[in-house]
Structure formats: structure tokens, C-alpha cells
Amino acid sequence: MKSTDTVRSRSQTGKPNRQIRTAWTEAWDGPESPGNLPMPLQQILYSEYTDRARRAGKYELVGGPVGQVVSRMNKVRSAGDVLLEIIEEYVATMERMSETYRSLG
User: Fold this and answer.
1) pTM surpassing 0.85?
2) Cα–Cα distance, 84 to 91 (Å, whole number)
3) Please, which contacts does 72-81 make with residues 24 or more away whose CB atoms are closer than 8 Å?
4) pLDDT 10s digits, 14-68
5) What are the φ/ψ torsions at residue 8 (nearest 5 degrees)?
6) Residue 24 burial by CB count (10 A; 0-12/13-18/19+): exposed, middle or buried?
7) Do 39 and 10 contact (CB within 8 A), yes or no?
């Protein structure tokens, strides 16, 4: 996924946020859109739409909020792999901190 796969839109909540570009965001941000509803009404409408899209198996229609890190989301990883990486980084950090502490004292 690239940053160009996202759009800053009010189409999910009524307030601007970065989200994955979908047919929903294109329709609500297009020139023929009736405009977004105020909070919380836009969110209620979006929730109903996404529930229906999921039940119909149309997952490509369901977006979601996403941050600037989206361009780093380029592969699927298991939760176990992510946890292992976090633990390894923690251990390496603690070893560096211990070495630094020993050298000071």
C-alpha cells in the first residue's frame, strides 16, 4: 500500500481524517455528493454501510482510518513475528543500556 492509496476525507466520521481510498470516499468527496453529515450522523451512516458491505463480502468497499505509516505496510506478518521483533529490540536496548551504565560506573 502507498500513501497515494489514501485520502484525507470527512466521509467516515464527518471530521477530516486520513483513510484508505475506496468507492465510498470517492463518492462522498465527489462533485455530486450531497455533502457529509455532522458528527455523529456521518459515522452512523458509515457504520451501516460497512456492515452491509462486509455481510455482502464486498471488503474492497470497506476502508478505514490509516496513518502516515501506511507506506510501510507492504507485507502481512503474523502476530508472533511482530512480538518476537519487539522482544528482540527490547533485549538489544537493555543490553546497550547496561553497557552504557557499566561504562559510567
Assistant:
1) no
2) 11
3) 73/1, 74/1
4) 999 999 899 999 998 999 999 999 989 999 999 999 999 999 999 888 888 888 7
5) -90, 120
6) buried
7) no
What CA–CA distances, in Å, run from 98 to 60, 101, 103?
A: 48, 5, 9
42 contacts: CB under 8 Å, gap ≥ 6: 10, 11, 12, 13, 14, 36
- CA distance to 5, 41, 44, 64, 91, per residue, from 14 (Å): 20, 8, 10, 14, 43
Evaluate whether 26 touches 11 at the Cβ level (below 8 Å): no
C-alpha cell at 26: 470517492
- The single residue listed with the C-alpha cell 538489544 is 92
**Region for 35 from its dihedrals, namely left if φ exceeds 0, alpha if ψ lies in -120 to 50, beta otherwise:** left
